[in-house]
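Sequence, please.
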């Protein structure tokens, strides 16, 4: 067979395939598109001028206009039926019934039997599965089972009323998608959102833009999230905020259980207690509203906002526990704090705001370790304070606060007191005072004076008016009183049974210029807020 015959044969086969395809398509198309049927009408008329090719069907006293297309029944007072176009215009008490559950009522209707799409106008009411949709214009696509409204609509079910400017109803999924000025009203809360999806059976809502949920005693803001009104739980993301009577909670993500009054917060946490003037920050925390308590376990930082110098506290874990009248803040492990020029470190801190009481403690040391450790090793583990140039440590440190001014009032160290500060002229030398107990007083949040009682010892570098070293004073006394100026020790008084010698500088060996238990912890000092804030990579 030559190429010419081969091309002719190929062309005939291709033509035959196209004819078969067209015949099959037409048969299939005819089978798929069914004609709208006239079931009943009170009267039949035509008006070629107004409705070319249109049959005018009207209701009389006994018989309504009834049309059917597949499982859809259309009832009305008047319908114009276009048989060739397979479409209908109905008006006057229009009612549609589809299947067993879906009903639609409206003032007028345009329906196309080819595309299975309809537009309903006037007082439109769509009823399905115990839910009612009300609007003034509705598009219904029967092929994909979706309904749309564009100029305001309202959904009413057994629990809630929902309104928005635009909406889409996915009939098979029993789901609504709302946009613009979305509002949900029920007995327990009000939801306002720019974009929200709502599942009818579960009543769950999903948010995709700015949203506000207002309950009886709380208000929630977020830009994305989810809420289940049956289980009373929600997850709120992007600029999430929960406001209650007691606190304002911020976080990148907040899980909220309304019934348990519990929330867990993740990343960029900020819990603000305006009454207590307390702010808790971190990257993971939990809030127990019934117990009036909060815990931060990842990168926690607490800020007690005061008129003069706010208090910053850092720890591995921070708690705010108890009702307002007896609320306590606790820090556990690696505690650091800063208040103005006053700072410190400890294993534990407890702040009882209503009592004006702050307690700093170390982790318990076993009896065996107490026998093994040197005094310096114990002092390394003890709570420590820095007040400008002075370093103060002890087994347990207790502060009191003036409840009227919220300023520091007194300090007490119950055991193993050690004070040191670098010599102001020669930084290689240290003035040192130690003893069993300390009682001190503050003025304007600065340590003003202190008394060291029992077994007090001192090493102090003495200078003349020209800042020439006179000698090194080594003394013991039952009690020593210290006065501080703005930054350092200003005056020392021996109160009871003093014994001391002023040694020339070169008379003492270096190890004789330090007291037992000496340790310089200046490398641990917290100098500014940046020392407390975890740097994120």
């Amino acid at each position: 067979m030559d190429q010419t015959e081969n091309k002719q044969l190929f062309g005939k086969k291709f033509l035959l395939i196209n004819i078969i395809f067209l015949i099959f398509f037409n048969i299939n198309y005819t089978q798929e598109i069914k004609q709208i049927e006239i079931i009943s009408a009170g009267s039949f008329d035509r008006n070629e001028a107004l409705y070319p090719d249109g049959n005018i069907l009207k209701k009389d006293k006994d018989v309504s206009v009834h049309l059917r297309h597949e499982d859809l029944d259309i009832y009305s007072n008047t319908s114009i039926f276009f048989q060739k176009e397979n479409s209908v215009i109905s008006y006057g008490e229009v009612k549609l019934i589809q299947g067993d559950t879906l009903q639609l009522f409206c003032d007028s209707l345009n329906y196309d039997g080819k595309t299975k799409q309809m537009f309903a106008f006037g007082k439109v009411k769509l009823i399905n599965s115990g839910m009612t949709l009300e609007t003034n214009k509705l598009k219904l696509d029967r092929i994909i089972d979706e309904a749309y409204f564009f100029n305001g609509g309202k959904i009413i079910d057994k629990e809630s009323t929902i309104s928005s400017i635009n909406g889409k109803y996915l009939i098979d999924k029993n789901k609504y998608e709302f946009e613009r000025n979305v509002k949900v009203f029920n007995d327990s809360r009000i939801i306002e959102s720019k974009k929200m999806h709502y599942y009818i059976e579960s009543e769950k809502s999903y948010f995709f833009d700015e949203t506000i949920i207002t309950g009886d005693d709380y208000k929630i803001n977020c830009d994305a999230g989810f809420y289940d009104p049956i289980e009373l739980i929600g997850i709120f993301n992007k600029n999430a905020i929960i406001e209650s009577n007691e606190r304002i909670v911020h976080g990148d993500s907040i899980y909220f259980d309304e019934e348990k009054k519990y929330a867990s917060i993740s990343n960029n946490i900020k819990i603000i207690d305006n009454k207590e003037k307390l702010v808790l920050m971190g990257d993971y925390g939990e809030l127990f509203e019934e117990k009036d308590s909060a815990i931060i376990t990842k990168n926690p930082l607490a800020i007690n906002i005061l008129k003069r110098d706010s208090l910053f506290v850092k720890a591995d874990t921070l708690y705010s526990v108890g009702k307002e009248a007896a609320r306590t803040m606790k820090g556990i492990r690696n505690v650091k704090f800063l208040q103005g020029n006053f700072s410190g470190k400890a294993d534990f801190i407890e702040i009882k705001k209503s009592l004006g009481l702050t307690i700093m403690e170390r982790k318990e040391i076993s009896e065996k370790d107490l026998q093994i450790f040197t005094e310096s090793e114990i002092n390394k583990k003890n709570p420590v304070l820095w007040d400008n140039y002075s370093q103060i440590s002890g087994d347990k440190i207790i502060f009191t606060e003036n409840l009227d001014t919220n300023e520091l009032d007194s300090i007490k160290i119950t055991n193993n007191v050690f004070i040191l500060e670098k010599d102001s002229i020669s930084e290689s030398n240290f003035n040192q005072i130690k003893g069993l107990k300390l009682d001190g007083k503050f003025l304007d949040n600065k340590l003003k004076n202190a008394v060291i009682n029992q077994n007090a010892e001192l090493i102090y570098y003495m200078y003349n008016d020209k800042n020439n070293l006179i000698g090194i004073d080594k003394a013991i006394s039952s009690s020593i009183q210290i006065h501080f100026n703005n930054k350092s020790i200003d005056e020392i008084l021996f109160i009871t049974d003093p014994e001391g010698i002023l040694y020339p500088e070169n008379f003492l060996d270096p190890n004789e210029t330090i007291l037992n238990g000496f340790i310089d912890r200046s490398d641990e000092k917290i100098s500014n807020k940046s020392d407390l804030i975890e740097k994120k990579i």
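Residues 1-31 have pLDDT under 50 and may be disordered.
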